[in-house]
Amino acid sequence: MKLGLPSRAVTETERHGTDRQSAKPFARRSAKPCAFGSIVEEAVRQSAWGIASSFDIYECNPDTIRDADAIKRFVVELCERIEMRRFGETLVVHFGEDERVAGYSMVQLIETSLISAHFANATSTVYLDVFSCKPYDPNAVDAFAREFFGGSHSIVHVNMRL
């Protein structure tokens, strides 16, 4: 998939700033909350349309990522923590004939956009995406999701949508 950004590995302590000219994402691999503290202020300063973040959370609790009710609870609690208003019910569907990709997928519309995720059974990994035109703290999402799903570490990418 072509995103218009150079692809390269993210090291443990590497961080890229985002501005209108470079459009480079903030990124960090972390076993503890990542350093995106100023992203909310930066989004407001640049009049960003929104913040789009992806969270790859590794070595999660296999029982939790295979529990549709737990996934729904996660969404409710996450929305409360980052002050997002859910629109409609959370959709959680299990599918995937190929064991490599089998697992639940989740979609939750929010007033300011959406939250989605795929839960990979084979690797006990959560692939979570949050996009909102209302600023939110990716640190809060990362810390809560790793705690809720029992993940050992995560790789986080944060982009301002300008």
Verbal overview:
The radius of gyration is 15 Å and the shape is globular. The protein has a seven-stranded antiparallel beta sheet. It has helices at residues 39-45, 62-65, 68-81, 138-149; strands at 26-30, 50-58, 91-95, 103-110, 113-120, 125-132, 153-161. The protein is an alpha+beta fold and 162 residues long. The protein is built from four helices and seven strands; from the N terminus they run βαβααββββαβ.
Briefly summarize what is shown:
With 162 residues, the protein is of the alpha+beta class.
Computed structural class: alpha+beta
> What summary fits the major beta sheet?
7 strands, antiparallel
Average pLDDT metric = 83
Give the count of helical stretches.
4
Q: Which strands sit side by side, in order, in the main sheet?
A: 1-7-2-6-5-4-3
* Secondary structure: number of strands: 7
Number of individual domains? 1
In whole angstroms, how far apart are the ends?
A: 20 Å
Our Rg estimate from Cα atoms comes to 15 Å
Shape, principal axes of CA atoms:
globular
CATH topology: S-adenosylmethionine decarboxylase
CATH architecture: 4-Layer Sandwich
* CATH class value: Alpha Beta
CATH superfamily: S-adenosylmethionine decarboxylase
**Uncertain runs with pLDDT below 50, 5 residues or more?**
1-26, 30-34
| Series of H and E elements | EHEHHEEEEHE
Taken as a percent bin, the fraction of beta residues is 25-35%
Helix content: 10-25%
